[in-house]
Design brief:
By secondary structure, the chain is an alpha/beta fold. It folds into two domains: 118 residues, D-Maltodextrin-Binding Protein, domain 2; 87 residues, Periplasmic binding protein-like II (D-Maltodextrin-Binding Protein, domain 2, 3-Layer(aba) Sandwich), CATH 3.40.190.10. 34% of the residues lie in helices and 29% in strands. The chain contains nine helices and eleven strands. Strands 2-3-1-4-11-5 form a six-stranded mixed beta sheet, sandwiched between helices. A hairpin with a 4-residue loop joins β2 and β3. It is elongated, with a radius of gyration of 19 Å. The chain binds adenosine-5'-triphosphate and 1-O-pyrophosphono-5-O-phosphono-alpha-D-ribofuranose (PRP). The site of 1-O-pyrophosphono-5-O-phosphono-alpha-D-ribofuranose has 12 residues, from β9 and α7.
Length: 211
Amino acid sequence: MRYLTFALGKGRLASKTLETFEKIGITCEEMKDKSSRKLIFVNEDLKLRFFLAKGPDVPTYVEYGAADIGIVGKDTILEENRKLFEVLDLGFGACKMCVCGPKSALKYLEGGQQIRVATKYPNIAKDYFYNQKHRTVEIIKLNGSIELAPIVGLSEVIVDIVETGSTLRENGLQVLEEICPLSARMVVNRVSMKMEDERIRRLIADLKSVL
Ligand SMILES: Nc1ncnc2c1ncn2[C@@H]1O[C@H](COP(=O)(O)OP(=O)(O)OP(=O)(O)O)[C@@H](O)[C@H]1O
Ligand SMILES: O=P(O)(O)OC[C@H]1O[C@H](OP(=O)(O)OP(=O)(O)O)[C@H](O)[C@@H]1O
């Protein structure tokens, strides 16, 4: 039996992912050691391998088949737009992709003038404004603290993730439009889905039974 390789998104989703795998008997103790610099972890008994990667890199590993399976946020799947199968909504990591800004920016969304949109997700923002709203906007790519942009006058609005809404509230901003709900998803390489059909189907069924 060959090894099945998992690429798991680092950060917020990692601990929930490991917790969920543990519930179905898939464990990887070594991975919990935060001080370790080791990059790949093997479960010899189950013939599984695991590695953690930056979220946006997970779909890349899966498309190229370097990982058979990935666990990553729906936001990242939409943004990266890789060739892969999305097979399961894991439910955790729930949040929303939204257009946000000060209340006063509502007039810019309703009006037809050119506006600036700051975001870590340029492809999601383009798809929303160009294809769904049929509006031309200037997209400004940022890498974090997106809420700063309308405060300091870099953009009129932002496209960003909202979970509890605290970051928006604390900065005098609000949700102006909801784009889509998000959560962690399991993605599978297109060839692996055929070659390892039985093992992957069993894994999906096991995961479904504990979600
Ligand atoms: N409040 C939240 N903010 C951001 N992402 C969230 C939130 N709640 C759930 N998520 C999900 O967690 C995923 C990964 O979170 P992570 O902490 O790695 O993101 P990040 O802050 O964008 O990473 P980085 O710090 O490397 O820029 C997101 O892609 C998203 O699907
Ligand atoms: O609705 P909330 O519960 O406040 O969560 C949303 C915030 O969390 C994320 O930022 P993150 O903490 O990842 O920092 P970053 O902005 O530097 O990416 C996201 O980009 C929002 O800023």
